[in-house]
Amino acid sequence: MLDGLQERLKSSGCSCARWVRPEGIHLTLKFLGDIPLNRTAEVTGAIEESVRGIAPMNLKIAGLGVFPNPRAVRVAWVGIGGEVDKLRVLQSKVDAGLDRIGFAAEERLFTPHLTIARVNKYVSTEERGRFGRIITGADFPPFTFQVSSVSLMQSRLEKKGAIYSRISSTVLE
Question: Which domains does the chain possess?
Fold first, then answer.
């Protein structure tokens, strides 16, 4: 579904963005940065403890937007709707659990989204604005999906983009 949206947006003629490969699109609850491999079991344990008692939830892909604003776009994203209150509880509990083992809690408000593109570094203000208008003016049908687990992921940056590997997965109860 999202790959079709990306293809449609790419065909708008704006070549100022790097598009996230469809298999790399994800919802980040907490970015940890570089962690030593010998801490992955500890991190997984903290996640398991944090999500205990949280049931699966239904989310909806709906709406397009940009960060920080349509005139100075750096990131294009797809919004998340549905049981967002449950998602916020999940994110808060994961953040608190990881804070207890030394990964500082987020200071920014959690804004659930899926990044679909990043604007290249040296793109003009005019081109950023044009891309912002394309993204915020686009439309697509919403769809619902179920979140039934939380995964600890590893990302490796390569020339063609980030490559993601699952380290562990915790099922929501």
Answer: 2-171 (3.90.1140.10)
Annotation marks residue 158 as catalytic: no
State the average pLDDT over residues 96-100. Answer: 98
Instruction: Given the residues 21, 26, 39, 74, select the one marked as catalytic.
Output: 26
Q: Does the active-site annotation cover 26? A: yes
SS3 of the chain: CHHHHHHHHHCCCCCCEEECCHHHCCCCCCCCCCCCHHHHHHHHHHHHHHHCCCCCEEEEEEEEEEECCCCCCCEEEEEEEECHHHHHHHHHHHHHHHHCCCCCCCCCCCCCEEEEEEECCCCCHHHHHHHHHHHHHCCCCCEEEEECEEEEEEEEEECCEEEEEEEEEEECC
What's the mean pLDDT in 80-94? 97
Tens digit of pLDDT for each residue in 59-70?
999 889 999 999
Pick the catalytic residue: 113, 130, 135, 150? 113
